[in-house]
């Protein structure tokens, strides 16, 4: 098998790291994001379907070697490079080589993935990454089979592996689709599984669905549904639960588990209040904030800056 997307991308852009979403990994910093085309899932609700469902390799208009990507990321002041837009497990070799090139120049690597990967390449993939946001798309086999064309078992195995057997920082995201994966029972089961398999400090993001791709007739996720899911997860022992794709400063900010102080305030992807020391300790009580904190927060803010490799 030959990876014919190696060295080619559907585009490059500098984003805030919080957009991935990663709230506990180098907050406020810029991340150089890119992807290729295609996907190993068939999600009916895909919100990047123009890229992930593309079978036209001619759409891969931007070329860049792993070394070029690493050099540009460093020159542009990005703390990390993210493999995103489509699932990086399908351009495994390109992602792993780029991660290695980034590490050579002091830039970290981030995977945004559904975690649907075989056991054999799983170790190399996650051990190459400094952080990953893994989609836990639902918590029933029926949901995965009918709406993604895949199975839940390999995803749960990948999450357990990444959290328990690598140094990769992991955060989880569930896109809540009304009537499909948002029931109280399913959120209870998902939260309990995360607590027992990943621990209380792995951040979980519940994000809002909007009608897209083959699910145009479904309603948007109500704000109250997201808040209910957050409350359920917190009641099941999860310490850091966020909601996304909506505006809610309180539910998108981070809090100290020791004293309850709001240690990071977020307004969409803009950081404001910051009450952590350079090593992630709460300035009020000293409790360590889980994640990767390296010095003061970045100042990238909400900006989104498209790049063409040939021009930088």
Supply the key terms.
3-stranded antiparallel beta sheet, alpha/beta, 312 residues, globular, 14 strands, TIM Barrel
Tally of discrete structural domains: 1
Rg result: 18 Å
* Main β-sheet description: 9 strands, mixed
Helix content: 25-40%
Roughly what fraction of the amino acids lie in strands? 15-25%
Low-confidence spans: none
Q: Note the run of SSEs as H and E.
A: EEEHEHEHEHEHHEHEHEHEEEE
CATH H level: which superfamily?
Answer: Aldolase class I
Named CATH topology: TIM Barrel
Structural class designation: alpha/beta
CATH architecture: Alpha-Beta Barrel
Q: How many angstroms separate the termini?
A: 32 Å
Top CATH class: Alpha Beta
Q: List how many beta strands DSSP finds.
A: 14
Tell me, what's the shape? globular
- Strand order within the widest beta sheet: 10-9-8-7-6-5-3-2-14
Structure report:
The protein is an alpha/beta fold and about 300 residues long. It has one domain (about 10-310): Aldolase class I (TIM Barrel, Alpha-Beta Barrel), CATH 3.20.20. The chain contains nine helices and 14 strands. The protein has helices at about 50, 65-75, 90-105, 120-125, 140-150, 155-165, 185-200, 225-235, 250, and strands spanning about 10, 10-15, 30-35, 60-65, 80-85, 110-115, 130-135, 170-175, 205-210, 240-245, 255, 260-265, 270-275, 305. The strands form three sheets. A nine-stranded mixed sheet has the order 10-9-8-7-6-5-3-2-14. It has a three-stranded antiparallel sheet with strand order 11-12-13. Strands 1-4 form a two-stranded antiparallel ribbon. Helix 7 links the parallel strand 8 (about 170-175) and strand 9. Helix 4 runs parallel beside helix 6 and helix 7 (about 185-200) packs across helix 8 (about 225-235). The model has no long low-confidence stretch (mean pLDDT about 95).
